[in-house]
Design a protein that fits this description.
The protein is an alpha/beta fold. Helices cover about 25% and strands about 15% of the residues. The chain has two domains: about 35 residues; about 300 residues, Lysozyme-like (3-Layer(aba) Sandwich). The strands form four sheets. A six-stranded mixed β-sheet has the order 2-6-5-10-4-11. The radius of gyration is 26 Å and the shape is globular.
Length: about 350
């Protein structure tokens, strides 16, 4: 009897030891698997965006500050429409993608772009392909001065409720082929308040608003909306250029606007301009002018298609950017890039 008990005890001991070893092996396997997944994460951002994404996600921004929507440039949302959207980033004019190259263009981004809720009405439609008119295009080369300037940057993606798709047709189904423009704004609020406003969801279409980028007083470039998306920066607006008046109506219930072909950049307002309706203030910092010129120098949008919110506004309410020194800006921009028109033959080649 004693021998049987001892034998049983030995067997049980061996089985317990084997079980312990198997458990350790399985735990180690799970750890290695987790480690592998962690070290090889799935790309959070499409490869098409790597050229303008910073390599690191930024520190948490102050979201405690709040601001009344009327102090920002709130614009009606234009996504309640029937036009066909530009469904893929590859179909977007390449000039729009060149506008937001980050300081480290080849590095991978870690900050994911928020996903927008898809509209079933838009999903059911096929993108209408059209032959764009033969318009003048430009070649751009950045200079040594551009390479020497390295602004700080942050990512603070706006909530998807505050931006939408760019459309290939207007509300009547007519193809639109407007060349990109750049619209300059000012926040009328501290940067932290503006960022907080853009990052929050807004159900009211009359207060949804955004820029593609914002430039802080210290020159930091803040990326807010991907360039292939339509920021809600200028409702009821028209751009007057060499091709006449340009605007696109994408909502039957709202006035037409330039948002469908505009890239919006907002400058943080200096302290003396916050909360006032004065037409002037002390102006923007040297760092802001340098970062603005650096940002725009990466695009091939010509000088004549760079404008202001005040110039395109048709509501009679927008006066921004106040106290903007165009002479200083043009001098910096021209020192950062050399832009050359291309002939039709060069474009076709």
């Amino acid at each position: 009897m004693r021998i049987r008990i001892k034998t049983t005890g030995v067997v049980l001991g061996i089985l317990a030891l084997v079980g312990l070893m198997l458990g350790l092996l399985l735990a180690r396997a799970d750890f290695l698997q987790d480690q592998k997944v962690t070290s090889n994460p799935k790309a959070a951002v499409s490869n098409q965006y790597l050229d303008f994404q910073p390599k690191e996600s930024t520190k948490a921004l102050d979201t405690k500050a709040t601001i009344a929507s009327e102090d920002l440039e709130s614009q009606p949302k234009e996504t309640e429409v029937t036009p066909t959207p530009q469904a893929t980033a590859s179909e977007v004019d390449s000039r729009l993608k060149q506008l937001t190259t980050a300081p480290t263009p080849k590095a991978k981004a870690k900050a994911a772009i928020p996903k927008q809720a898809s509209d079933p009405r838009l999903k059911a439609q096929k993108t209408q392909k059209s032959n764009p008119p033969k318009t003048l295009s430009y070649s751009v080369k950045t200079t040594a001065a551009f390479e020497a300037y390295k602004p700080r940057y942050e990512i603070a993606w706006a909530n998807p409720s505050n931006y939408g798709d760019r459309f290939a047709t207007d509300v009547n189904g007519t193809p639109v082929n407007n060349q990109p423009i750049i619209v300059l704004h000012e926040t009328a609020a501290p940067a932290s308040s503006a960022i907080n406003f853009f990052k929050n969801s807004h159900e009211d279409e009359n207060v949804q608003a955004s820029y593609h980028t914002m430039i802080k007083l210290d020159g930091t470039v803040v990326y807010l909306v991907p360039p292939d998306k339509r920021a809600f920066g200028a409702g009821n607006s028209v751009f007057e250029g060499s091709q006449g008046e340009e605007t696109v109506k994408t909502n039957p219930d709202l006035p037409p606007s330039v948002n469908n072909f505009a890239y919006h950049v907002g400058l943080e307002t200096p302290p003396d301009g916050v909360g006032t309706k004065e037409t002037t203030h002390t102006g923007y910092t040297e760092e802001q002018y340098h970062s603005l010129a650096w940002l725009i120098a990466q695009s091939n949008v010509p000088d004549e298609r760079i404008t202001t919110h005040k110039a395109v506004d048709r509501s009679g309410q927008r006066i921004d950017p106040r106290s903007f020194d165009f002479d200083k800006f043009w001098n910096l921009l021209h020192s950062f890039r050399v832009i050359t028109p291309l002939s039709i033959s060069q474009i076709s080649n």
